[in-house]
Structure formats: C-alpha cells, structure tokens
C-alpha cells in the first residue's frame, strides 16, 4: 500500500469519527430546542362546544394557549409535559399521566381537561384538596397561564 | 367563574389513534437509522484501514464483521420501532458504534497475533474479535427481549426486593467462592465454568442493585430529605437514617477487601450515593459519601502498609499508581506500557493497524483504551470519550423528562453508573487514579460486561421512550 493511501485512511477515519460525533451533537441540539418549536406545531386544544351545540371555533390567540405543563416545585420539579388534546390526570396512581409520590396526594387527585381552548382543572374528590393559586378548587375551574396549581407539596403551572 | 358547571366527563375527548405515529417519533427513528448506518460505515472504514496496514492490501470481504453488526443492530432498530417508537434516537447508534469499534479493534489484535501469511485467512467469527461478535449477538438479543417484554419501566419496580437480594448474592458470590473458581489476575470477580467460559456476576449485580436503590429511595426520600439537623451550614441526616448508606458502605468495603477490587467497590458506593443525592437533593449526602469513601480507602492503604494480609494487593496498586516507573518490568509493567502506548499515539495516532498495541498487557480488556489510543491518538480517544459523554447525557435527559420518580432515579442512576465506570477504568489506564480491573463499557472483550451494558441501554431506551411519549398518547402506554 502506498504511504499516501495509509495516511488518507488514518486521517479519514478520524475525520469520519468526528463527523459522527458532530452529527450526534446536532441531533441532540435540535432535540433540546425542539420544545419551543414543537409547542407551536401542536394544534391548540380544539374547543368542542357541547353546551351550546354550535360549531363556533374557539377564539384562542395562538400565542396565549398553553402548550406545556411544568412542575415548578416538589419531587418532580423540572418535569415538563407537552400538552396535546387528551386530559392530564394527576395523582399517586401508577396510571396517572403525572405520577406524584407525595404523602399529601390522593391516588386520583385531580385532572386537567382541555375545553374551548382552555385547560380546566377539576378536583377528583381528593383528601387534601387541589388549590389554584390560593383558592381551593371545588368545581371545574379554568386555569390561566402561569398560575400555580398546588397539590400537596407539588406545584404545577401551564406555560405557553 | 363564568364557565357553566357542566360535568367534564360529558366532554367528548378526541382519542388519537395509537396506530399512526406522530411525525416526531418517525423523525426520531429515521435519525436513528441514519446514525446507525453512519456508525457501521465507520466500523467498516476502521476494518479497511486495519487491513491496509497489516495485510498490505484490502481483502474483498473486509466488511464482513461490520455487515454482521449492521444486521444485528438493524434488527434491534426494528424492535425499537415497534416497541419504543419515541425512544431517544442517539443512544442506540452511539452505543452500537462503540461496540462495533471494540469488535473491530479486537479483530485487529487477532490479526496482530497471527503470523503474517495466515492473516488473510482469519474468518469472521475467529479469535477474540469473533467471540466478541458472538457476544454482541447475545447482548443485543437480550436488549431486544427487554424492550419487547417490559412495556413499562415501572413494572420492573415490582421485582425490586427480589432484584436487590439477587444483587447482593451476585456481589458476594465470587468473594465466598474459592479462589480457584473466582480469581483472575488477583481480583476475585469471576465465576469460571471450565477453562474457556467465565462470567462476571458483578456486572449484573450493578443493574439489579440499582433497581432496588431506586425503588427503596422513592419510598424513603421524604424522611431522608426532611429529617435533618443543620451543622456547619450543611443539613445532615439523623443518625438512624444513615443505616442503609452505612450498610452499602460496609458492603463496598467488603468487596474491596475480599474481592481485591477498588474499582467495583467505588462503583457500587458511588452508585448508591448518587441515587441518594438525586432522590433527596441534599449535597450533604455527596459530602458524607466522599468522606466515607476516601476515609475507607485511606484506612485500607494504612492497613496495607502496616498489617498487609488481605489489604496487600490494594496497597500494591496504590504504590504502582504513585510510582509506576520504579519497577517498570515488574509491578509497574502494565501501567508503564499503557502510558508508553498512549504516548506513542500522540495527537493523531499511528493509524489503525499500524501500532503495536500487543505490547500492552491485557490490551483486550482492561487496557483496550490504551491500545486504541496508540492507533487513533488523542484526537480519536477524545471522540470516543465524547461519545460516552453523550450517551450518559441522554440518560440524564431521559431521567429529567420522565414523569415518575422511580423512572427518574433509575435512569439517573444507570447513566451515572455508566459514566463512573468509564471514569474509573480510563482514569486507571491513564494514571489519574489507581488502576482497577474494570471493563471499558462496550469496548472491552468480555461477554458479561457487554450483555449487562446492553441491558442497561435497553432500560434507558425504555425510560426515554416513556419520557418522550407525548401526554396526548396517554403518557406511558400500558
């Protein structure tokens, strides 16, 4: 084998190795910043008007709709859930969307349901109650962006 | 509130069909496929470069090991597509590349051992490289089985106590067995079946103990995190809550003394302390852990100097680490050869197949990193280290995003253990810390290590799938 071919093989391999590394880094980078973009791509929770029976589309400004549920305090702090069109159940039960291990939470504690382009919080008869900011949730209550939902030691917030 | 109090249950909920995968999942799987093919191309390039250097020509079937590997990993890719469609796209290809380069390097060592005229006749499944290739088949099959049958990582927590007990038995077994069955090169870490087949139960103990730690700490985190006394500005836990950590500490010291292996002991202890730290968010656990470990290691060294006996081997290792060039042909031989190999490699290495890695003793397992370092240089080794770093980072990412505490602790613990093992062995061969007989994950020759680490990757894939499944798909699928 001529010297030049061997040198090409030696450096070619190293270059290819680093190309692989940078491709992986690129994938991860796209992944890290996908959260904000994916948020815009996901359709806003579609309003399904049952009470009125008319097919009036929900008047929700795109930028104001909640796309993420973020845990801000408690054992799961930092967890983010990208919201789709399905309700989010919260509790200690293993099949909840958000499983919180908290002594003050019930097995099926609360749920968030999309309605008319808004997320509605509903307590499912928990022992220690669900709080929206400082007031106890008794019936279905719409949740504005950035207002803390408190369950036991855990706090959650809707984010755009 | 202006909302009419209609019962929420009456609201029809649009059930997305689980059959059609969202674009995000399909894009992730496409990325995985391309990265995997690129990785296998790299392995083939390495094999070609090796043959060009060692045979003076490139044979027509140089790509065969890379082809076999590609087929195996493509099968795993299909399993991931079917059973974990949202899983991290980077984990599998990165690990597959490391595994593939390990196989290719071991094959290169086989070529180096063979006489020059016989080199062209080396078949795909011959020698250490072939053995490693077969073990890769088994390991990937194991990973596929885990992905196929464990649909939800929380199912694993049901067997936590069983796995914990199994873990302790696996850790202690080699220590209790007579040295003729369990001792290889001074470390009692093995169970030998006859002369050609041996397993390292500690590799599997790592995984099962972690499952138990994660399960135990999810239940105990509150008391460990909240009941504390403040001293010197750091929150220290109560005496009785220290119980389990002291038990694990004692266990790891027993491993150190009876199995004569600092690395494994550091691995178990570090694993536990970090899961404890992740569970409680208390820096005090890290401080306590580091103090206990360094205290224990210093004590063992002092005992080795004064009493000798079971501590002597540990003392020798520390002496070699401090002054490897004192006896370069006796006790310091391994380490000096490793350092000389790395030094010969320099920045860009001698090129695949052009070095003399067989000068380094144990180059097929403990010192594989030094052997590869001679041929790919600092430039190549850094790329390999970055790959490990990225795999660990993806593990932590899965831990951060998964929605249940058990999954968080398990993924965090698994990723950290992998990182710590890489640190312990590469720190050892590069004389940063005393050398210990750990395997380099995915690279070293050794079936147990390969199988155990692929199982680890399978669990990480499963957790990352759960983490990345959008909530609209029902969170974690049943």
TrEMBL record, chain A:
Signal peptide start and end residues: none
Keyword Phosphoprotein among UniProt keywords: yes
Residue ranges of every copy of the FHA domain listed in the record: 88-137
Pfam families according to UniProt: FHA (PF00498)
SUPFAM superfamilies noted in UniProt: SMAD/FHA domain
InterPro entries xrefs: Cell_Proc_Reg/RNA_Proc (IPR050923), FHA_dom (IPR000253), SMAD_FHA_dom_sf (IPR008984)
Transmembrane segments: 6-28
Keyword set, alphabetical order: Membrane, Phosphoprotein, Transmembrane, Transmembrane helix
Keyword Membrane part of the UniProt annotation: yes
Official protein name in the record: Phosphopeptide-binding protein
Automatic annotation (TrEMBL), chain B:
Subcellular location per the Swiss-Prot or TrEMBL entry: Membrane
Keyword terms, alphabetized: Cell cycle, Cell division, Cell shape, Membrane, Transmembrane, Transmembrane helix
Membrane topology annotation: Multi-pass membrane protein
GO CC terms in record: cell division site; plasma membrane
Signal peptide: none
Primary location: membrane
Transmembrane segments: 33-50, 62-79, 86-106, 132-150, 159-177, 197-218, 239-256, 262-279, 286-304, 367-389, 409-430, 442-463
Tagged with keyword Acetylation: no
InterPro entries in the cross-refs: FtsW/RodA
Official protein name in the record: Cell division protein FtsW
């Amino acid at each position: 084998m001529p010297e030049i071919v061997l040198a090409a093989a030696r450096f070619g391999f190293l270059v290819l190795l680093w190309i692989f590394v940078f491709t992986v880094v690129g994938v991860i980078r796209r992944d890290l910043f996908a959260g904000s973009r994916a948020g815009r791509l996901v359709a806003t929770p579609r309003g399904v008007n049952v009470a009125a029976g008319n097919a009036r589309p929900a008047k929700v400004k795109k930028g104001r709709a909640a796309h993420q549920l973020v845990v801000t305090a408690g054992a799961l702090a930092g967890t983010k859930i990208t919201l789709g069109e399905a309700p989010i159940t919260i509790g200690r039960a293993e099949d909840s969307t958000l499983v919180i291990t908290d002594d003050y939470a019930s097995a099926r504690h609360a749920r968030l349901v999309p309605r008319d382009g808004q997320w509605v919080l509903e307590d499912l008869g928990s022992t220690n109650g669900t709080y929206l900011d400082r007031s106890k949730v008794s019936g279905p209550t719409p949740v504005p962006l950035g207002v803390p939902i408190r369950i036991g030691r855990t706090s959650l917030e809707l984010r755009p | 509130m202006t909302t009419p109090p209609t019962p929420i249950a009456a609201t029809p909920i649009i059930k997305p069909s689980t059959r059609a995968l969202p674009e995000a999942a399909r894009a992730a799987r496409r990325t995985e496929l391309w990265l995997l093919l690129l990785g296998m191309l790299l392995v083939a390039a390495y094999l070609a470069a090796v043959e060009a250097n060692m045979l003076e020509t490139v044979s027509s079937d140089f790509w065969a090991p890379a082809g076999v590997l590609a087929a195996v990993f493509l099968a795993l890719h299909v399993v991931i597509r079917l059973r974990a469609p949202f899983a991290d796209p980077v984990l599998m290809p990165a690990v597959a590349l490391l595994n593939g380069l390990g196989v290719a390097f071991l094959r290169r060592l086989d070529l180096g051992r063979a006489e020059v005229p016989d080199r062209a006749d080396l078949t795909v499944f011959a020698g250490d490289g072939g053995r490693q290739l077969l073990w890769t088949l088994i390991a990937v099959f194991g990973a596929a089985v885990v992905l196929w049958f464990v649909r939800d990582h929380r199912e694993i927590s049901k067997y936590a106590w069983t796995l914990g007990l199994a873990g302790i038995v696996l850790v202690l077994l080699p220590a209790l067995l007579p040295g003729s069955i369990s001792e290889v090169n001074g470390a009692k870490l093995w169970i030998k079946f006859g002369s050609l087949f041996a397993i390292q139960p500690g590799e599997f103990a790592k995984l099962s103990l972690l499952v138990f730690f994660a399960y135990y700490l999810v239940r105990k985190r509150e008391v460990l995190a909240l009941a504390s006394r403040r001293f010197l500005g750091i929150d220290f836990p109560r005496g009785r809550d220290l119980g389990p950590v002291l038990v694990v500490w004692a266990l790891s010291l027993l491993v150190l003394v009876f199995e004569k292996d600092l690395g494994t002991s550091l691995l178990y202890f570090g694993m536990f302390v970090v899961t404890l730290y992740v569970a409680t968010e208390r820096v005090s656990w890290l401080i306590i852990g580091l103090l206990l470990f360094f205290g224990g290691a210093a004590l063992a060294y002092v005992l080795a100097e004064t009493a000798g006996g079971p501590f002597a081997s540990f003392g020798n290792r520390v002496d070699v680490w401090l002054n490897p060039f004192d006896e370069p042909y006796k006790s310091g031989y391994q380490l000096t050869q490793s350092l000389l190999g790395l030094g010969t490699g320099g920045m860009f290495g001698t090129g695949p197949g052009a070095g003399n890695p067989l000068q380094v003793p144990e180059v097929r397992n403990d010192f594989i990193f030094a052997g590869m370092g001679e041929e790919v240089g600092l430039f190549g080794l850094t790329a390999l280290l970055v790959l490990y770093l990225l795999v660990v980072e993806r593990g932590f990412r899965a831990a951060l995003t998964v929605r249940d505490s058990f999954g968080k602790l398990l993924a965090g613990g698994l990723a950290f253990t992998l990182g710590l093992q890489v640190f312990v062995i590469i720190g050892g061969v590069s004389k940063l810390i005393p050398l210990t007989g750990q395997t380099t994950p995915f690279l070293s020759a050794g079936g147990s290590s390969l199988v155990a680490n692929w199982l680890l990757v399978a669990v990480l894939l499963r957790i990352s799938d759960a983490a990345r499944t959008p909530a609209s798909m029902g969170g974690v699928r049943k």
